[in-house]
Amino acid sequence: MALVGLLLSSISYGILVIYLLPPEAYLSAAILGMGFGLTVPALQMLALAALPKNIRGVGSSIYTMFFDLGYLSGPLALGYLAESEGYKSVFFFLPILTFLSLLNLMILRLWRRKKA
Predict the structure, then answer these.
(1) Spatial distance between the Cα atoms of 29 and 35, rounded to a whole number of angstroms
(2) Which helix (H) or strand (E) element contains residue 83?
(3) Do you find a cis peptide bond into 23, omega within 30 degrees of 0?
(4) How far apart are CA 9 and CA 112, in angstroms?
(5) For residues 39 and 34, what is the distance between their CA atoms, to the nearest angstrom?
(6) Pair 6, 98: CB distance under 8 Å
(7) Rounded to 5 degrees, what angle do the CA atoms 62, 33, 85 make?
(8) Does residue 30 contact residue 56 with C-beta atoms inside 8 Å?
(9) Strands (E), the chain
(10) Could you count the other beta carbons within 10 Å of the beta carbon of residue 44?
């Protein structure tokens, strides 16, 4: 599910690069919502399912902390880019960032298969 969700997110940001204005941009928003809806719970399960029950709460808090850190640092970095290069320059990086996340997840999945 995380792979499908990240793929949908990458596709939606790719659509947003092409169509910045409504009504076409609404298609991107709908696909992005579906992608996040699949990605967030799937990544949380990947991060926490293998943990022993007695430390799962600690794992959940660490996962949430870094999730929040990402949602804080990303807008700051992209906001700085928008300030210095213009608002349109941000949209070029969004599909790249989500695709790198997708690639990272695929590499980890292949690595785990070879290990088993």
Answers:
(1) 10
(2) helix 56-85
(3) yes
(4) 24
(5) 9
(6) yes
(7) 80
(8) no
(9) none
(10) 16
Q: Which two tokens stand for residue 48?
A: 């926490």
Q: What is the pLDDT of residues 47-87, one digit of tens each?
A: 888 899 899 999 999 999 998 998 899 899 999 999 999 88
Read off the tokens for 90: 């941000």
Please provide the size of the chain in residues. 116
**How many angstroms separate the CA atoms of 38 and 48, rounded?**
16
pLDDT higher than 80, residue 116: no
8 A C-beta contact, residue 101 and residue 95: no
For residue 60, the one-letter residue type is: S
φ and ψ of 84, to 5 deg: -85, -35
Amino acid (1-letter code) at residue 114: K
Cα separation, 17 vs 91, in Å, equals 6
Closest CA to 47 of 32, 61, 36: 61
Phi-psi region at 21: left, alpha or beta (left = phi > 0; alpha = psi -120 to 50) = beta
